[in-house]
Design a protein that fits this description.
The longest helix is centred in the middle third of the chain and has 17 residues. α1 crosses α14 and α9 crosses α12. By secondary structure, this protein is α/β, with parallel strands linked by helices. It is built from 14 helices and 14 strands. The radius of gyration is 20 Å and the shape is globular. A hairpin with a 4-residue loop joins β13 and β14. Strands 2-1-3-4-5-6 form a 6-stranded parallel β-sheet, sandwiched between helices.
């Protein structure tokens, strides 16, 4: 029996757990051989032959979930990522435990380097999985309901701290909002709306869709129907949204910062990125974000809208091929190899 255990307090971790379990079955394991659990589950009997623990490096260790689940598996793979400062928030005792009792796998070269610098042994780099079943359905779909509803539009996505936001919100939605404000008249002239899937109340967008309100199919279909997907984040340990947009053939504009600059293929924002070490009040943790000028994001959006169809098709075809490396069955194979 293989356990797939996910941190329950992050939507992305649960989604990753579901896709990892699906991926394991897609490469030949029966559903009865894979068990999906939140990390808060109390184990009452037996041990797993192997477990994959998915979660934030800092929150998983601070809640002791890695120690708890190490007792109930012969081999524990900790598939971790975090934007949080490891030197301030990962203790020496936890580093020792990770090295002695778990097999740590990073989601990106960026996180791999950070973990190694902190003294953690890392056994590989495996990115987060995509749901190939839904992606292939969306690719083949002729459903144009979002084009009928919204017409021509660009899209962004992001949930971020809203109770006590830091001065430089990590998802970069404030940068996006300022950039759109700068070019709003030009977008209106071209008949292009701006849609944001977010928990933020942005000033310059035309349509706000509450974060988490769409099915996976509709989210990918909304991405597919957009002229452009914009990902303005100041930092990601991995960053799934641009990869999802790439997978359905949408051109991506992205901030060229860790770690999505490792797997994004589209149009990066060429600008001066300034690293800032900052306390995030809502989570009481420090992280490093890369701040940049919204004017450069605005210019990049207009540039991306103006490229030729031939160039756009070439870039999106290459991006779709790249995204297939992250299909869940491929990711599951890499994890089981580790």
């Amino acid at each position: 029996m293989i356990g797939v255990i996910y941190e329950p307090f992050g939507v992305s971790f649960r989604k990753c757990g579901l896709l990892t379990a699906k991926g394991i079955t897609r490469i030949g394991y029966t559903e009865n051989a894979v068990r999906l659990l939140p990390s808060t589950t109390l184990m009452v009997c037996g041990k797993f032959k192997a477990s994959i623990l998915i979660g934030d490096t800092i929150y998983t260790t601070s809640n002791q979930w890695h120690r708890y689940h190490a007792h109930f598996t012969e081999k524990l793979l900790f598939w971790c990522d975090s934007p949080i400062d490891f030197f301030k928030h990962l203790s020496d005792s936890e580093v020792d435990f990770l090295n002695d009792y778990t097999c740590v796998v990073a989601v990106s070269k960026y996180d791999y380097d950070r973990l190694r610098e902190r003294g953690v042994k890392v056994y590989g780099i495996v990115g987060r999985p995509l749901d190939e079943e839904i992606i292939l359905k969306v690719r083949e779909s002729e459903d144009d309901k979002f084009k009928k509803l919204y017409g021509d539009y660009i899209l962004t996505l992001g949930a971020d701290q809203i109770l006590a936001p830091p001065r430089h919100p990590r998802k970069g939605l404030d940068i996006f909002d300022k950039a759109i404000g700068m070019i709003k008249s030009e977008l209106k002239k071209q008949g292009i709306k701006v849609i944001a899937i977010t928990n933020w109340r942005l000033k310059n967008i035309d349509v706000r869709i509450p974060f988490g309100s769409l099915t996976e199919y509709d989210l990918l279909l909304l991405m597919k129907s957009s002229r452009l997907f914009v990902f303005p984040s100041r930092l990601e340990a991995f960053g799934m949204p641009p990869l999802e947009a790439m997978s359905v053939g949408t051109l991506v504009v992205y901030s060229n910062v860790p770690a999505h600059n490792e797997h994004c293929l589209g149009i990066p924002v060429e600008t001066n990125y300034v690293p800032i070490h900052e306390l995030s009040p809502e989570i009481s943790k420090y992280w490093v974000v890369y701040d940049y000028d919204y004017k450069d994001l605005a210019k990049t959006i207009l540039y991306a809208l103006d490229i030729s169809e031939q160039e756009r098709e070439k870039m999106t075809r290459e991006a779709m091929r790249l995204s297939e490396k992250y299909f869940s069955k491929n990711i599951a194979s890499l994890l089981l190899e580790v």
